[in-house]
Amino acid sequence: MTNVLMLSSILLVFLCFLVQLSYENYANILHLHHSHPSHYHHHLHSPSPHSPLLSP
């Protein structure tokens, strides 16, 4: 039973690492595809009503 627990924990750590790696790659791909300055700055600085944290 301890062997199964150890294997599952190793799989969990590997899965977390894989998710983090894929998320970073996805963010890099998104940044590359939206590298137009006007669109990128507009998307960054436009105050959206759905995010109350950005509004003063």
From TrEMBL:
Residue span of region Disordered: 37-56
Entry keyword set: Signal
Positions with biased composition (Low complexity): 46-56
Superkingdom of source: Eukaryota
Annotated signal sequence range: 1-21
Protein's name in the database: Uncharacterized protein
Source organism of the structure: Linnemannia schmuckeri
